[in-house]
């Protein structure tokens, strides 16, 4: 970058237009300049480049040999700049080949209806889902290692550098094995007397339930911790253990493992499933398209700035 010549690019723009028109009058009109200002600018460029650049003949400005050689480099460069600024290459969603999304097993499960829909309509598209190893991998989004993250949170937060879209909100329920015949309404005493399976996507030793209990100086016994929510209900089958997880998945899986659904005896805050992407890609056509498709499918309203 240090080798870029110190020259007013507006002068090169004038050169490019004048080379193509061969007329100071037309050049002034195209650039919205007076003819006098155009002539003065040409004089400045001649002095800067130490060449006459154009010679007047029969009311035409004929390029010098140096100007012809300069134009061979300058004109394509300005054409590329113009195309880039105008976004001349129209975005074609059918040409999108790959998109990388980080998710937990649960958030990926939540996206299944949308992914099935979009992949059936855009057959050239391939979506790679990567295990979400930290709650929000900001650096990976910034470094373009990820296009999007589908994660979740329990309280609204603003993350520097990230844009986000609220997908849906859900509540938690507690599951128990039906053969243990626990009452529908669990008491806190019963809840705390049982062993629990902890779902910890990022290998935490405590979850949202433990944090709520800690506010009242209470705790529960964790017998198993697992990062895999989709398989976790199988762990409590034929046991006295309990597991607290999103109702959306509990209702889907309870009958398969003969489990009963209970409301937790504590006030567990709702979770929000969200899409995250880096703000440096707000105008990335691929992400704009994908997020708009997502919003249309789920009836959400969101505008990328």
From TrEMBL:
Entry keyword set: DNA-binding, Transcription, Transcription regulation
Q: Which residues form the HTH lysR-type domain?
A: 7-64
Instruction: Kindly give the Pfam families that the UniProt entry links to this protein.
Output: HTH_1, LysR_substrate
Question: Listed GO molecular functions?
Answer: DNA binding; DNA-binding transcription factor activity
The keyword Protein biosynthesis is assigned to this record: no
Protein family per UniProt: Belongs to the LysR transcriptional regulatory family.
Which protein, by its recorded name, is this? HTH lysR-type domain-containing protein
Species per Swiss-Prot/TrEMBL record: Pseudoalteromonas luteoviolacea S4054
Organism placement in taxonomy: Bacteria, Pseudomonadati, Pseudomonadota, Gammaproteobacteria, Alteromonadales
């Amino acid at each position: 970058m240090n080798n870029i010549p110190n020259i007013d690019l507006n002068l090169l723009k004038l050169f490019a237009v004048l080379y193509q028109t061969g007329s100071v009058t037309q050049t002034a009109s195209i650039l919205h300049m007076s003819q006098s200002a155009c002539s003065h600018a040409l004089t400045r460029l001649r002095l800067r480049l130490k060449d006459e650049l154009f010679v007047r003949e029969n009311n035409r400005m004929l390029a010098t040999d140096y100007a012809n050689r300069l134009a061979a480099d300058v004109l394509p460069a300005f054409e590329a700049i113009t195309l880039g600024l105008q976004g001349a290459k129209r975005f074609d969603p059918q040409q999108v080949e790959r998109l990388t999304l980080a998710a937990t097993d649960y958030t990926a499960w939540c996206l299944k209806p949308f992914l099935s829909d979009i992949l059936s309509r855009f057959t050239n598209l391939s979506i790679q889902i990567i295990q979400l190893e930290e709650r929000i991998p900001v650096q990976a989004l910034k470094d373009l290692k990820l296009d999007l993250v589908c994660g979740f949170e329990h309280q609204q937060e603003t993350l520097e550098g990230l844009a986000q879209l609220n997908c849906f909100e859900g509540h938690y329920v507690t599951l128990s094995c039906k053969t243990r015949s626990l009452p529908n309404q669990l008491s806190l005493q019963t809840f705390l007397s049982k062993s629990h399976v902890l779902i910890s996507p990022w290998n935490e030793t405590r979850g949202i339930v433990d944090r709520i209990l800690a506010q009242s100086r209470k705790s529960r016994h964790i017998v198993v911790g697992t990062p895999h929510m989709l398989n976790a209900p199988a762990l409590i089958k034929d046991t006295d253990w309990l597991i607290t997880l999103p109702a959306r998945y509990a209702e889907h899986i309870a009958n398969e493992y003969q489990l009963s659904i209970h409301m937790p005896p504590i006030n567990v805050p709702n979770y929000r499933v969200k899409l995250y992407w880096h703000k440096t890609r707000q105008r990335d056509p691929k992400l704009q398209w994908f997020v708009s498709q997502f919003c249309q499918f789920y009836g959400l309203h969101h505008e990328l700035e």
